Amino acid sequence: MLLVDGSSNQQGSGTGIILEGPNGVLIEQALRFSFKASNNQAEYEALIAGMLLAKEMGAQSLLAKSDSQLVTGQVTGEYQAKDPQMAAYLRYVEVLKRAFAAFELVHVPREQNAKADLLAKLASSSKGGRQRTVIQETLKTR
């Protein structure tokens, strides 16, 4: 299972990613951007980074959860991606989906995504902390 969240504010942008695998494997990642991103872009970046991580870890099927109604709606086909930037993100997600035998993205209330939200806020803050249990890196460009 993958939990993702994006955050963008005046201090910066970033994502929070939590990947739970079989046998209790848990990977938590805070990813800070060195580029400016809107909140919706950060939400897509979170999903993409999480999908790439799951693929890298050898996941065959993936259940992803996001509290972004826009991103989940576009990926499930409920909403159209009219903005060119959102359409480009959506196309990339469609390509990444093919790496999995089964892929599902579901919308969850923010309260059920609190841990990923906290990681995203950590990544987008100017302080950016250095917790030993959290993988942190800076994404230069997409």
Tell me about this structure.
The protein is built from four helices and six strands, in the order E-E-E-H-E-H-H-E-H-E. With 142 residues, it is of the alpha/beta class. The longest helix has 18 residues, at 39-56. The two termini are 24 Å apart. It has helices spanning 39-56, 69-76, 84-97, 114-124, and strands at residues 2-9, 12-20, 26-33, 61-66, 102-107, 135-139. The chain has one domain (2-139): Nucleotidyltransferase, domain 5. It has a six-stranded mixed β-sheet. Strand 1 and strand 2 (12-20) form a beta hairpin. Mean pLDDT is 88; it is low at 131-135.
Percent of residues in helical segments? 25-40%
Strand content: 25-35%
- List the total number of helices: 4
CATH architecture: 2-Layer Sandwich
Q: How many discrete domains? A: 1
Classify the fold: give the CATH topology. Answer: Nucleotidyltransferase, domain 5
**Tertiary shape:** globular
Outline the biggest β-sheet. Answer: 6 strands, mixed
Q: What strand order characterises the main sheet?
A: 5-4-1-2-3-6
Return the average pLDDT rounded to an integer: 88
SSE arrangement, N to C: EEEHEHHEHE
What is the number of strand segments?
6
Cα-atom radius of gyration: 14 Å
CATH homology superfamily name: Ribonuclease H-like superfamily/Ribonuclease H
Name of the CATH class? Alpha Beta
Structural class: alpha/beta
Report the span from N to C terminus: 24 Å
**Which stretches are poorly predicted, pLDDT < 50 over at least 5 residues?**
131-135
